[in-house]
Structure formats: C-alpha cells, structure tokens
Amino acid sequence: MRHLIDPTDLTREEIEQIVALGEDIIAHREKYREACKGKKLATLFYEPSTRTRLSFTAAMMELGGDVLGFSNANSSSVTKGESVADTVRVISSFADIIAMRHFKEGAPLVASQYATIPVINAGDGSHAHPTQTLTDLLTIKREKGRLDHLTIGFCGDLKFGRTVHSLIKALSRYEGVNVILISPEELRLPDYMLQEMQAYSNLTFREVRTMEEVMPELDILYMTRVQKERFLDEEEFDRVKDSFVLDTEKMKVAKNDMIVLHPLPRVNEITREVDKDPRAAYFRQVENGKFVRMALILTLLKYAEKAPAEGAAPRYSEPFEINRHVCHHHSCISQTEDVDQLFRRSEDGTLRCAYCETRLK
Ligand code: NCD
Predict the structure, then answer these.
(1) Separation CA 188–CA 159 (nearest Å)
(2) Whether residue 101 lies in the annotated active site
(3) How far apart are CA 305 and CA 279, in angstroms?
(4) Could you report the per-residue pLDDT of 252-278, keeping only the tens digit for each?
C-alpha cells in the first residue's frame, strides 16, 4: 500500500508523473469528471484548515467521488480518547482514501501503519506538508517551465513552516537548485533540515537576515506566515511577527520574471498592493492545488488497486530500529499515542525519530 506522508515517499519520476497528470487535468477537465465515481475520500482534520481541506473536497468532487470526514478534533472521537490508529482502522472500512491533518508531528505516519487504504498527509505539526509541495511544484512548472536551475528564497517562518521543509526536500533532487533562507535568528530552519541540506550534494544554500540583500538574484520568492499557533512563548512571537514584509518597494529590485509564492493564509507579510503585480502567483498557486490533489488521489487509488494492504498492523515501510530509543520531542505523536518508537539512520549517520525527524540526543 502506497501512502504520501513525506514528499520523499514518491520518487522524482512519480512526482513528475503527478505534476504532468495535473497539467493534463487542467487541459482536459471533462475527461476526469467520473474518474472517481463510487469512491470516497475521508478528510480527517484535527487542526483548522480552510484551503487544504476544501481543496481536497473540491478535488474529489470534480472527480465524481464523495467526501466524508470532520474538520476539527472536537467533533471527532478524540474527545473520547480514541487513538489515531483506531480511528483510521474504522475509517478504512468507510472510505477508499484518507487525507489527514494533525497538530502532532507523525500522526499521518501512524495512520498509514494501521489504515488499509492510502493515507495522505495534509500537514502534520510543523513537520511536513507534501500536498502543498506538489502544489508548489506544479505552480513552478507552469510559471517557470522547469524545476531545475532555480534560485529560490524562502522568507519568514522557516522554523515552523512545514510547507518550506517539504518543498526543500523535494527540490533537493533537482540539479542546480540554489536555496536562500531569509529569516530572523529565532525562526531559522530546524537543525535536522540544515543538516540534511548539507548532506544533499545537489543543493546549494545560504542563510541571510534581510530580503533586500538577495532580492535581485531570486527566480522565486516563497513567502510564509509566522506560525503563531506553534509558538510556546507569546513574547517571542510578538518580537518576530512583523519581520520580513514584502511590499511594492522591495518588488522594484526583483527580476521581471521572478514569481512570488505563498501557501496562504497570508496575514501581513505581503502587502495588498503586491497582489496587483503580475509576478504575484499565490492565487494561481491555490488553484493548482486542487488540480494536483486530483492527480494525487487518482494516482494513489491506482497504486492501491495494484497492491492492497497486506499483513497485520502496524505495518512499517522501512526497516526501522524499533523500541530501542525514545523520542522526547514535545509535539511528536509518540509522546501522546501508544506507538512503537521508530528510529531511522539518516545519511549523515545520526539516528532520527521516524515520526518527527528529531535527532536522538
Ligand atoms: C499552510 C499550512 O497549513 O501549513 N497552509 C496551507 O496548507 N494552505 C501554511 C500556513 O498555515 O501558514
């Protein structure tokens, strides 16, 4: 059974096939009107979302399928103390595919170990957001015509912004990608990501503290919101919340064909005037999200037909080190749910929790 928990669960070829299928759907929408007739998508959203959940819903509806689910943890059995594992075991007999968003890192991975239908990670804590990555890749492909030889600046909350983490991982497989990380000290990319980037041979990267100094170099500027809900400390949040605002003045020194992306929601990090600039691609990006989710649903359902789930749960996709170490990361699902402790050895030789990727101390 194939799932999409992390962007690297798909090979580069598979990602390109999904992006290409997304483009075909855009060109021939009527061809796909009944492609998922009789199929059901369960949207299990334990954390608030408008765009992502409605994008999944619209995607399934455009494929002629049905959607069921919940949009916050309070309206699910979590309030009765049900585990993620039990919830997805139950949902597996009601639906054909699951899209899950959760505030704990690794919850969709747990779901994939117990579900007998494909699980899509629709965002887990500050960890990963692979369907936003597919959205970003389809947008970059349509806007720039390529996914390699690009200089991309990531600006804002690189610490908690899961969309940034997932897109960097996906881009690390392409040639000539130059990443510039633009953030205040407090919101730097997490250590595990920086170490991973050092290990990627393809990718070059550097960290800077202002947008202005790199603006003229960029092919893409990826803006992000400061993730208030993930801050533990209110004062720290207040100090950084207005950092790194994109306005028309800063746009003046950018390339004529640079594009601005943002996963949305936007708060104040891009001023409204920038919306009128044709280089502002974030509303086009949202629409691409629906098409690429259609492509992903079709692809995972096809894989599931070929290879249904086998064996008793939990099923592990890799030879992890099982129950030999303990993860202490506060927002890891393994802190609250009774699951096996899983660790994998990463390229740099360190052991990392499979759920949240935090390095073993
Ligand atoms: C992002 C998310 O949920 O991680 N939004 C989205 O998926 N549309 C970014 C964010 O919440 O800031």
Answers:
(1) 5
(2) yes
(3) 41
(4) 999 999 999 999 999 999 999 999 999
